[in-house]
Amino acid sequence: MKKTYHFKVLGCRMNHAERREMESILQDRGMKESLQSPDLEIVHTCSVTGQAAAKSRNAIRRAKRNGKHVFVTGCFTGTDPKVAQELGDTVVTQAGETPMIERFANEVDNWLQRPSQETKARTTSLPIATLPQHQGEHTRAELRIQDGCDAHCTFCIIPKIRTTLRSKTIEDAVTEATRLVELGHKEVVLTGVFIGAYGHETALRRKQDSPESEHLADLLDAVAHIDGLQRLRISSMEPGDVTPVLLDAMVANKNIVPHLHLPLQSGSDAVLQKMNRQYNISQYMEMIALVNDRLTLNGLPPAITTDVICGFPTETEDDFEQTLTTASSACYLHMHVFPYSVRTGTSAARWTQLPPEVVQERVQKLIELNEKLSFEYRKKLVGRQVNVMLEQFCDETGFAKGRSNHYAEITLRTNGKQGDLVVGTVFEVTADKTLAKEDLVILN
Ligand code: SF4
Q1: What number does the ligand 1 atom closest to the CA of 162 have?
Q2: Per-residue pLDDT reduced to its tens digit, 87-100
C-alpha cells in the first residue's frame, strides 16, 4: 500500500514554495496525500516572530497526535533546534551548505529505508524543483528563485537560519514556471528571502559585484514570455533593489502586474539605521516616486504594499510620527503592521524594550492609518474594469472574493469557479470591501 503524507505549512510564501518542492519529492517516491492518520506529517515551520514560533510548536504537537512520524522543517528548526528535536521525530534544518530540499529528500529516503537518490554535494545555485503531478488547492503558485540573506537587520533572525545565498538559473526558473502553467496556475509569484540579491552571493549592496550573466530583470522578462502565463508578480523587494531596468521589464510585459511589496519598516532614519537597513527615507521616497512614474497606467498608480514594525526598541514618539508621515505620503494599498517582537539571537533583543502599552497604542494608530490609506487607494478603482482571480466563495450569498492585478481584494457575484480569472467593473468601495459587478467575459 502507498505510504501517505500530510503537510502543515506556516509562515511566508517561501515556505509555500518549498512545500511544493517537498511534496514533489514525496510523490516521486510513490506517496500520496491523506489528512487522516498519515504515515508522515510534515510541519514546515516559521519563527519570524515569537507568536509564529508558538504556533509552530503547537502545530508540531498536533501533528504528533495525527501522524505516525513527524518531520519538522523550516525556520523554527534554526531558532529552537532543541524544542524541534524534542517535539518532532526527524528535524531537517534550514541552515547549511547543502540545500534544505536535498537534505529533506535524504531524510525521506532514510525513513523509507531506501537508497538515497539525492547528491550531497554543495550546489551554488538553487536546484530546480520537480513539481507535484496535480495543482493542489492554490490558484496562485509561488516560484522560489532565491534563498538566503546576510543583511543582518538587527531585528531579524533569518540570516542565522537561511545562511547561504543561492539563486535559481533563469533556465530552471522558466522550466519550473512553464510546468506550473501546465498544471493550471494562471498566476506565478516569484519569491525569495532577498530577491534583490538574485545572482549575487551577498545581500549587502556595498559588497555586490555585477552578476556575470543572470540578472533579475532578464529572469522576469523570460518568465513573463511563457505561453499561457496570465499574471506574474514579485513577492517582495527591498527598496534599494528596484532599478530602472527592472521597471522597464515590468512595463514591457503586460502580464507583470503593477504591484510591488516594498518593506518600509520605519519612517525614521534614526530607527532605520539602528535596524541596519540599507536605505534612508529620502532614498525610499525617491524610489516610490520612480515606481509611480513608470507604472502608472491610464491614471491609475501601481499598488504598493509594505511591512512596518511598530515599537522597535529605540523608537521614540517623534520617530513614530515620522513613520505616520512617511506612510501617508507613500499612499499604500496595504500596510502589514507588526508589533516589534523579540527574537533571541538578534542584536535588538538585547536592547531596552518599549512598554507593551506604548507599542500597542502605536500599532492601533498605524492600523487606523492603513484603513484610511487603503480606502483612498481603492476609491481610485471605482468605475474601472478589473481582472479578478477567484479565490474564495461564500455559498449562501453567491459572492466570491479574489485579487485584482493591483492586489486589491474584490468581492463580486459570479458563476465562475476557483482559479478562474473574471472581469468586473468596480462600482462601490467601503471601509473593508471593494465591490464589483461581473462583466460578460471570462478569461480562461
Ligand atoms: S533583509 Fe533584513 S529583514 Fe530581510 S531577511 Fe534579511 S535580515 Fe531579515
Answers
A1: 5
A2: 999 999 877 767 78
